[in-house]
Design goal:
Blueprint: H1 9-18, H2 38-46, E1 72-81, E2 84-96, E3 99-106, H3 116-122, E4 126-128, E5 134-136, H4 137-151, H5 154-159, E6 162-168, H6 170-185, E7 189-195, E8 201-202, H7 205-213, E9 218-223, H8 227-230, E10 236-237, E11 248-251, H9 266-272, H10 282-289, H11 297-304, H12 312-334, H13 339-344, H14 347-357, H15 359-365, H16 367-379, H17 391-414
Parallel strand pairs: 3-6, 6-7, 7-9, 9-11
Antiparallel strand pairs: 1-2, 2-3, 4-5, 5-8, 8-10
């Protein structure tokens, strides 16, 4: 049973999907730079929602068929990415359980806008955000561009009992900042719902956001083979990013392929959290998440492009790379790394140096690590003399991993077709060897 003061999974997914209709001509399947007419957005969001072909493709996500029937569309707002202003989202209001609710929805990245959205995603500089910590500058800039539009709804949002912030992909990143903004400036409850969102905050910022909004009020959904949610190295991390977090709901990807647009497509997220027979609860979705193994084996298989019927040799390679990835993730969690150090060394450099210094001690406590390093070295074609895993050898293995990721991400981008949300062009997909990369 769903909490009436929280959006159901279906409601949140419909809202996120419908944010794309704010783009001009999205409904026809030929979206262009610009903002759609409010009457069209209203029809798709809270009206009959019927579209013919293209972006609509008969995929009806109108809220009329949900518990939000009767909601009012207050405004459609613009946002700016890389200097290009387009339709970016909308504000809804509705009353339920004796309370006034407001929804702020933000859309994801699109390929049609002269790569403007992608350029915003690639803007990997770090900036401060409202005294809560450091965030991705590209996302911060996009958020700043919608603030004047949201200010026109200030009294509505201020007086609401609950504010729901929803988004997919880039929109999930913006929704995170919107939620933090309102959680810090008002006393009423704020809820955050993201689908396939990239990492937004750096260093301790995600934890600050969790404290500010409340971990129980953050609902993060991702597919286990969604490259946007999967890739993005230190110092960025997810809110509710730990496998033990109840609202870190990683779901089995809709496609068995290693990498593909389908795993990031918002329509597939709608299908993942919906059931034709009943309105699923978040507890139901958490149950689906329990079926997924929250470890690095999936990413290792992705690196090797071997998810389909891997043989015994490939299984050994996966095991070896998984060990490296797990060790790397653990290192980033426990290592106290300051901005000053990062400015001189990359995360990979630090990991390689630390692991090489203590390889004997690590191997004594975890022989699997040493075996994994041996297998990974063979795969990466790195020569190991006398079983000495120097910092250079370990770094070479990690660099090789990232060299494999880069063409896979490029391939995913090339596979994007009309009407399918584009995977974010996150620089972290190309090289964890970079300095501070989103």
């Amino acid at each position: 049973m769903n909490d009436l003061n929280t959006l159901s999974p279906r409601e949140a997914a419909y809202i996120a999907h419908n944010s794309y209709f704010t783009l001009k001509d999205w409904v026809t399947g030929t979206p262009t730079a610009g903002m759609e007419k409010t009457s069209t957005v209203k029809r798709m969001v809270i009206g009959n929602g019927i579209a013919q072909g293209g972006g609509g493709d008969g995929f009806n996500t109108s809220l009329r068929a949900t518990g939000m029937k009767g909601a009012d569309l207050q405004t459609v707002f613009r946002g700016e990415t890389a200097g290009l202003s387009t339709g970016f989202g909308y504000v809804l209001s509705f009353r339920r359980n004796g309370l006034d609710h407001v929804v702020v929805a933000s859309r994801g990245t699109r390929v049609e806008h002269s790569m403007a959205d992608g350029l915003a995603d690639l803007h990997a500089a770090i900036t401060t955000f409202g005294g809560y910590g450091q965030v991705h500058a590209g996302f911060s800039n996009a958020f700043a561009s919608i603030v004047p539009n949201l200010a026109r709804q200030e009294s509505l949002i201020r007086d609401a009992d609950v504010v729901h912030c929803v988004g997919h992909s880039l929109g999930g990143a913006i929704a995170t900042l919107v939620a933090a903004h309102y959680a810090g400036s008002r006393r009423a409850g704020v809820r955050l719902y993201t689908f396939g969102s990239p990492r937004v905050g750096a260093y301790a910022t995600p934890q600050a956001f969790e404290t500010l909004i409340g971990k129980e009020n953050i609902f993060r959904v991702s597919h286990d083979l969604d490259p946007v949610a999967m890739v993005g190295p230190y110092p960025y991390s997810h809110v509710n990013g730990l496998a033990s977090d109840a609202n870190n709901m990683m779901l089995r990807s809709p496609t068995a392929k290693l990498i593909g647009v389908a795993n990031h497509d918002m329509r597939r997220y709608v299908e993942s959290v919906s059931d034709a027979a009943r309105d699923l609860s978040w507890q139901d979705v958490r149950g689906f998440s329990a079926e997924v193994v929250h470890d690095n084996a999936v990413l290792a298989r992705w690196l090797l492009r071997s998810i389909d019927n891997p043989g015994p040799i490939t299984n050994k390679l996966v095991e070896g790379l998984s060990v490296i990835l797990k060790a790397f993730a653990h290192f980033l969690q426990v290592q106290c790394v300051t901005t000053a150090i990062i400015s001189g060394m990359t995360a990979i450099d630090l990991f390689a140096a630390a692991l090489s210094r203590g390889i004997d001690r690590y191997a004594a406590g975890n022989p699997q690590l040493l075996a994994g390093l041996q297998i990974a070295a063979v795969w990466a074609r790195v020569a190991v003399v006398g079983m000495k895993f120097t910092a250079a050898v370990i770094k070479a293995i990690m660099v090789r991993m990232m060299q494999v990721i880069k063409p896979l991400m490029n391939e995913a981008l090339a596979m994007v077709g009309a009407g399918s949300p584009m995977p974010l062009l996150i620089a972290g997909a190309t090289a964890i060897t970079g300095h501070v990369i989103a």
